[in-house]
User: Fold this.
Amino acid sequence: MLGLKIHTLPKLKNPNMIAALPDMGNVAGIGMDFLVKKLKAKLFAEIYAFWPPAVSYEKGLIQYNQSSYKFHYCKKENLVIFSGEFNPSDPRRLYELCYEVVDMAKKLKVNTLYSIGSALRSPNPAEPKLFGVASSTNLTNLLKKQKIELLNGKGQITGFNGLALGIAKEKNLDSICILKEIDNPNIIQPKATQTILVKLLELLKIKPLDMKDLEEEEKRKKFMEQQMNYMDGLTRKDKQPGIA
Assistant:
């Protein structure tokens, strides 16, 4: 069983909840950290996790710091935020975590559970799209009004950012997920995060936030990519026959 510690329950009136964990490109991880910081959210509960699976040491002394998932709240925005450092790969732990989060949402009488994340884009020249899925037709109509394209056909949203939506639906809690297409899942994607957050804040009717931090992170990412491409080009050139 996971260990839940409630410091204090916030007094909110039918708040919305955003719950997401790090995924491909760390789109969700970056987004949740950004919201907690920018909205000056207050910690009110933690779920202690089975992570990391090791201890560290320094100068012969053992150091043990167990990580936890955190619940924050923003009274002004009437919002609850759930975030953490890692997305469980073990199905049992994942289900336990999703049930804990949805149970907290029900305890706080949450109106709608929102999740965010990334979708791996198939190779094509088109601009990466913003997609959405929801637990009811009324909510899919809301996504359409916000010009968010629905995920058509059949597919899966894996990990916490998908499963939490299913557990929410099982518990009769409305839910929405917004996903941004990315090309490379192994590189952080701050621009994708920014695109999602702009639309998410509109849905939640929260005033726009200063996104300069994400824009600067995107610049650093592009610079690193340019450096990597340059070095890769030199390596390929060196391997061409007949070139010294």
